[in-house]
Amino acid sequence: MKIRPILFSTPMVEAILEKRKTQTRRTCKIQPKEWQTYSNYKDGTFNINGPDYDSNDIFPRYQKGDILWVRETFQKAVDGYIYKAKPKKQQYSSKWKPSIFMPKDACRIFLEVTNVRVERLLDISEKDAIAEGVEKYFDTGFYVMYGSKNDWAATAYTSFAYLWITINGKASFNANPCVWAYDFKIVERPNNFLNNN
């Protein structure tokens, strides 16, 4: 088990805090030229069935059992830290610091990886799109259309597609990359967190 950082956008941090988000997908660094199947998950490694690699093994960044400390947009305050996701009712400036610069001692959210799998992005199910934290459009049966101020999506799948595009760029969804799909749950801060490198 390792303790490792992970970045989330402000809407996704809010989704985690509201317990709407229990999955995240991250693009695999190694992409096959053509679709290959992944099988034989063992000891944190997936074997690739196909001729496109010098090595048949690929490794996810995070393993089942790892603890992830969430880096989010923040500010330093006199009495600690303020977070852009659901900030407390206190005075703060408009100068938010990007999540990449958040120090360990500012972390308030810890996640345990409960499952790891690899799949094509477009294969995400409606259930998994909901678990990605897409937001309902007010009290309707529709979902927020990310990147658009007034539109709504009829399915969580479509909402997730637009969310992915706002984070990764216009061509990124239809490119259908191989992604790591991580399931996680919120856990308490590890006792050895600040001493862990």
Radius of gyration: 18 Å
**The biggest beta sheet, please?**
5 strands, mixed
Q: SSE order, as H and E?
A: EHEEEEEEEEHEEHE
The strands making up the biggest β-sheet line up spatially as: 1-6-9-12-2
Please estimate the helix content.
10-25%
What is the number of strand segments? 12
Write a compact overview of the structure shown.
With 197 residues, the protein is of the alpha+beta class. The chain has helices at residues 10-17, 126-131, 156-168, and strands at residues 3-7, 23-27, 37-42, 45-49, 57-58, 67-71, 74-77, 80-83, 110-120, 143-144, 152-153, 178-187.
Written description of the protein model:
By secondary structure, this protein is α+β, with helices and mostly antiparallel strands. The protein has a domain at 3-122 and 177-187. 14% of the residues lie in helices and 31% in strands. The chain contains 3 helices and 12 strands, in the order E-H-E-E-E-E-E-E-E-E-H-E-E-H-E. The chain has helices at residues 10-17, 126-131, 156-168, and strands at 3-7, 23-27, 37-42, 45-49, 57-58, 67-71, 74-77, 80-83, 110-120, 143-144, 152-153, 178-187. It has a 5-stranded mixed beta sheet, with no helix packed on it. Strands 3-4-5 form a 3-stranded antiparallel beta sheet, with no helix packed on it. Strands 7-8 form a two-stranded antiparallel sheet. Strand 7 (74-77) and strand 8 (80-83) form a beta hairpin. The two termini are 13 Å apart. Residues 49-56 have low confidence and may be disordered.
